[in-house]
Amino acid sequence: MSSLLLILLGSVLVSYFALTGLRELQPFFSDDPFDSAIGLAVVTAANLIVLAPLSWLLNHFVLQPLHLEYLAPVLLIALILTLALLSQRWLQHQGRWLPAPGFTLLMSSQSALLGVALLTRLRSTSFGESCMLGLGAGASFAALLLAFCSLQLRLRSANVPAPFRQAPISLISLGIMALAAMGFSGMIRE
């Protein structure tokens, strides 16, 4: 049991180092990490706002009439990859945030996009509901990402004890933020 916990802890720390230490794995080339977080939040929110209605349309006008519901995950992944490529082209054309070489891979493997696409199939009964689900998911993802980034910036200048610097305090604060976000689930009965 302890070896499994060590493997889990090691993978978390390696993932944290890879996402914060290697410049190639960061989503945008920017000296300001908050500006990069704004770019990622804007792109992800825009993709979620577009993806939710598109997945509803795909489900109700293509998959259900043709009885091809089993192809939904594959088609949704293809739709996510298409949106990731389009957003990378838009970013390159726009010029404010320059995407890193692995940006398309980062956007296409984001679990928020696939989760919202699958939730749209299960929860949305109308096109308007799917639009609202995409808007709500995009806004909440952007808010949480920017809140965590601003918390990280404040922790850099805080007097944190030596054993808790960098990865440990980041994981602890992320866990507390996750608990706070879970407090909002169940506020409204379905």
Attribute tags:
single chain; 190 residues; mainly alpha
Structure write-up:
- The chain is an all-alpha fold and 190 residues long.
- The chain has a domain at 32-156.
- The chain contains 7 helices and no strands.
- The protein has helices at residues 2-21, 33-63, 72-94, 103-108, 111-123, 127-157, 167-182.
- It is globular, with a radius of gyration of 19 Å.
Whole-number mean pLDDT: 77
Total number of strands: 0
Which residue ranges are poorly predicted, with pLDDT under 50 across at least 5 consecutive positions?
22-29
Overall structural class, as computed from helix and strand content, comes to mainly alpha
- Please give the share of residues in helix: over 70%
How many distinct helices? 7
Order of helices and strands: HHHHHHH
Short description:
With 190 residues, the protein is mainly α. It contains seven helices and no strands.
Question: SSE layout and pairings?
Answer:
Blueprint: H1 2-21, H2 33-63, H3 72-94, H4 103-108, H5 111-123, H6 127-157, H7 167-182
